[in-house]
Amino acid sequence: MGLGNEKAYTIVPDGSITTPKGFKAGGLHCGLKKTTRHDLGAILCEVPATAAGVYTTNKIQAAPLKVTRESIGQDGTLCAILVNSGNANACTGKQGEADAYQMRNTFAEAMGLPGHQVAVASTGVIGELLKMDRVLSGIESLPSRLASSTEGAEDFCQAILTTDLVQKMVCVAVQVDGQTVHIAGAAKGSGMIHPNMATMLGFVTTDAAISSDALQKLLRKATDLTFNMITVDGDTSTNDMLVAMASGLSGTPELTESHPDYATFAEALRYVCEVLAKAIARDGEGATKLVEVQVRGAVSDESAQAIAKTVIGSSLVKSAVFGADANWGRIIAAVGRAGEPVNPDAVDIRLGDILTLEQSRPVPFDEEVALEYLKGDTVVIHVDLHLDSGQATAWGCDLTYDYVRINAAYRT
């Protein structure tokens, strides 16, 4: 499964989360990070936007998740999302929960909004209380920093980063009833990435008219095919959250399942999520390569997904890719331990176009050619099970010395 039907939408090269009508964004440095990089940001919609969210399935969940669930659950709408980096506000007890509500209510008051119209997200170190004096000071200054410009969007994107090396943002245009609708997304994520809902922090804006229930259904489906198909290190965060907001200001009729452009919108949303998911995998802590695993011939798509994620999450496979070692044995071992139906005598494996295993038997290949391929910045592993029509794609990265270095000193 690649990027889908390219004719269904148009990529907006200079687009951002503020391109959809009605949205502003911005960020600033309030002092949660030791560097001067922005660490507090917000997205604002000028009207109550229909909203949807998916969250981590980790049993230990940060305080902002409770606040955001409550906000969206009130009436299915949001006007703003307030985000801080540098501190996860996780495992901080009743005080952390009170701090998350104070963030929400203070920003709501500053913007003249009801408290439930604001969602809150946090990312960073677990187990430390927020420096609320700095957060509240930042909230006081934040409204004047919000803008409908690309600069405002970029300031927001900087504000949500932790160990990320690059900002992650994408925007597309899609036709609904002959009119242009925009869908845009921004995300952060580099380490502690092995989602079972979404991953990292992700934010989607659109000016489509769509109900909260319909948006929730589409967001969940897009997440299962994209964010839930990436891994960096096998760890699921306490703070994972993906929130979508639809302003409805495009002027188009409401999108429902019976609308002829509903499927086109759904495909464009999936594409936005896939671009962000792949950007997170490519930006994995210490990573030098994006790794893609394509599984086909499985008994079902769900089975293919499980196998693809097992291969992409294998430390041995990731290490082999880092070392440019065409060790297909690690790949087939991961396929076999995924707990899914496999005919042990019928598996094909390719590294790019290089066939290394056919019908579960080694195929002679040029080691030098394989070495050069594996030295590239993108490695695609193809697995064909020859059982049925199930297929799936997963994304990840190689496992490097720098991953250990970064996480050995994360708090310092």
TrEMBL record:
CDD domains associated with the record: OAT (cd02152)
Provenance organism: Paenibacillus abyssi
Protein name, as recorded: Arginine biosynthesis bifunctional protein ArgJ
Xref: SUPFAM superfamilies: DmpA/ArgJ-like
Keywords for the protein's UniProt record, in alphabetical order: Acyltransferase, Amino-acid biosynthesis, Arginine biosynthesis, Autocatalytic cleavage, Cytoplasm, Multifunctional enzyme, Transferase
GO terms of molecular function: L-glutamate N-acetyltransferase activity; L-glutamate N-acetyltransferase activity, acting on acetyl-L-ornithine as donor
Pathway named in the protein's UniProt entry: Amino-acid biosynthesis; L-arginine biosynthesis; L-ornithine and N-acetyl-L-glutamate from L-glutamate and N(2)-acetyl-L-ornithine (cyclic): step 1/1; Amino-acid biosynthesis; L-arginine biosynthesis; N(2)-acetyl-L-ornithine from L-glutamate: step 1/4
CC per GO annotation: cytoplasm
Coiled-coil intervals, chain numbering: none
Site feature location: Cleavage: A198, T199
Keyword Repeat: no
InterPro entries: Arg_biosynth_ArgJ, ArgJ-like_dom_sf, ArgJ_beta_C
Enzyme class of the recorded protein, top EC level: transferase
Task performed by this protein: Catalyzes two activities which are involved in the cyclic version of arginine biosynthesis: the synthesis of N-acetylglutamate from glutamate and acetyl-CoA as the acetyl donor, and of ornithine by transacetylation between N(2)-acetylornithine and glutamate.
A GO BP entry: L-arginine biosynthetic process
Compartments where found: Cytoplasm
